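Researcher: Good morning. I'm working through a list of sequences from a screen, and I'd like to move beyond sequence-only analysis. For each chain I'm collecting a predicted structure so we can compare shapes side by side. This is the next one on the list. No need for commentary yet; just the structure.
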Amino acid sequence: MKEKEIGEISAYFTHVGAAAVKLSGKLKVGDKVHIKGHTTDFEQKVDSMQVEKEKVSQAKKGDHIGIKVNEKVRPNDKVFLVE
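Model: Good morning. Structure tokens for this chain:
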């Protein structure tokens, strides 16, 4: 499995189980991501994402997106695209 770093967690919203991600690469719905940090380490498929509360199917470098996450994440956790 090849992985490429495509972003970093900037915030986690407990009440909705979502994370804000600052992208340094491209991401689209259906992609598999690996989120890894000091106490975080899991993989999941991206089922949906939003930019400024609007649903989008893909996002690019520089975008700040929100995605639902299956586990708690923390600011500065790295987001990798699993290829």
